[in-house]
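pasting for the record
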Amino acid sequence: MATNNNGFADALNEINTLLKVDKNIEKKVLEEAAEYFVRKLKPRIKKSEKNKDNHLRDNLKVVVKEKMVSVEFEDKAFHWYMVEHGHKKANGKGRVKGQHFVRNTFDTESDKIAEIMANKIIDKMEG
């Protein structure tokens, strides 16, 4: 490898080190990032005034599977997609505008989520 001191060699070494992250550390970091996303998403979801028993914000959860971590709504909150993206009105005349709470939250918080993940990975690798 070149021995110039322009910083690219060091950056390449750090990137290569990050690519070799242990899968258990990776899953823990993803879970922590998902929990952060849920904490930021819940306040943005309005409570339903029609259905007092089934609020979207109460059905949000982090699911850790064998090879992935995801943020999901429970089965009884199947309608989250229509609330997020909009839908046709029941009478067929016009559309209900989507609220875009998931997209807007991720757009707002994505840099912070990436920073949290990078810092956690670096912390776990250093000690």
